[in-house]
């Protein structure tokens, strides 16, 4: 079945599908005269039916059947009319007294000279001889008449509102503005990523260090060595007594990666002969011999640290590297 409808304004016939009628509740817009009308009024099957007449003929509804006349009501006996009785005519009311002049007017015998008009006044300027005409009030075009009813706007179908919204976003100016905003947001995201991962970028790509330092000068940050604890390992350790309850810790720190990393701190834990914890100390990289500033790539560093425990004797120890 192929459906079609005819425009109620210009009579143009065009095809239509059921999905469009279901989405727009039957309302469509004519592509020739832009008239919005209900397509279901003149809907027909273009393959099996002839187009409806245009303009649509008005078919009056069938007149309702007239009910059978009711039988006339029985005559009602009227009471006898009362006989008229004679009454004397009403007396005329006295006429109100009207004064010849209102209160405050001069009496009739007070003679005074009345002003006389001349055709051409001689003592007045030409502008004064013409009466000033009062300006007529003008009605602003933007203000509606107080008694004029304002017509309510016609409802717009949902599919037309969606089409207008899509057309608004497809304008060249709007698309250029969206592209500019997208580029600016992308640049800000890249700058944020560069600031957050500045240590790793400087270690993996040394030529970027100068640019990252310039960026940090504007944002108030600092480019330091990359802290990567999984790249470091302690290969060997030894704890040797020095006399007078003094000890010397010797260890070898190794960097297993191809980039320089930041020096770690060391946690030294001591235990007595029973295995109970005796002391715990954190050793900064600057306190080691020699002091560590950076662990070079693919290198081993021999380090030592001397300390004293007083009268307590150490039977066991452990060393762990970490970043504070």
TrEMBL record:
Compositional bias, Low complexity, is annotated for 126-148
- Give the record's keywords alphabetically: Membrane, Transmembrane, Transmembrane helix
Which regions are flagged for Pro residues bias? 53-91
The name of this protein is DUF3426 domain-containing protein
Span list, region Disordered: 53-148
Skewed-composition ranges (Basic and acidic residues) = 109-125
Q: Does the keyword Transmembrane apply?
A: yes
Does the UniProt entry include the keyword Transmembrane? yes
- Residue span, Zinc finger/thioredoxin putative domain: 3-39
Transmembrane annotation, as ranges = 176-197
């Amino acid at each position: 079945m192929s459906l079609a409808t005819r425009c109620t304004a210009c009579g143009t016939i065009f095809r239509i599908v059921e999905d469009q009628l279901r989405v727009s509740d039957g309302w469509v817009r004519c592509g020739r005269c832009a008239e919005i009308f209900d397509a279901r009024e003149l809907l027909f099957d273009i393959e099996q039916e002839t187009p409806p007449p245009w303009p649509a003929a008005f078919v009056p509804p069938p007149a309702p059947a007239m009910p059978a006349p009711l039988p006339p009501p029985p005559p009602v006996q009227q009471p006898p009319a009362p006989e008229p009785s004679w009454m004397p005519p009403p007396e005329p009311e006295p006429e109100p007294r009207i004064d010849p002049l209102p209160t405050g007017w001069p009496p009739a015998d007070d003679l005074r000279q009345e002003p006389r008009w001349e055709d051409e006044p001689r003592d007045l300027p030409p502008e004064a001889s013409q009466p000033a005409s009062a300006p007529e009030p003008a009605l602003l075009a933007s203000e509606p008449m107080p008694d004029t009813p304002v017509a309510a706007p016609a409802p717009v179908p949902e599919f037309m509102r969606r089409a207008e919204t899509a057309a608004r976003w497809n304008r060249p100016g709007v698309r250029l503005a969206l592209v500019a905003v997208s580029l600016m947001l992308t640049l800000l995201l890249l700058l944020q990523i560069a600031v957050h991962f500045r240590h790793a970028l400087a270690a993996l790509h040394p030529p970027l260090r100068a640019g990252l330092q310039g960026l940090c000068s504007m944002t108030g940050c600092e480019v330091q060595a990359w802290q990567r604890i999984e790249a470091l390992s302690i290969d060997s350790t030894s704890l040797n007594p020095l006399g007078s309850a003094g000890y010397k810790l010797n260890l070898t720190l190794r960097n297993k990666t191809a980039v320089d990393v930041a020096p770690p701190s060391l946690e030294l834990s001591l235990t007595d002969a029973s295995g109970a914890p005796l002391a715990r100390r954190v050793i900064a990289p600057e306190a080691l011999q020699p002091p560590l500033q950076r662990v070079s790539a693919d290198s081993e560093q021999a380090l030592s640290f001397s300390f004293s425990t007083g009268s307590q004797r150490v039977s066991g120890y452990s060393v762990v590297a970490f970043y504070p």
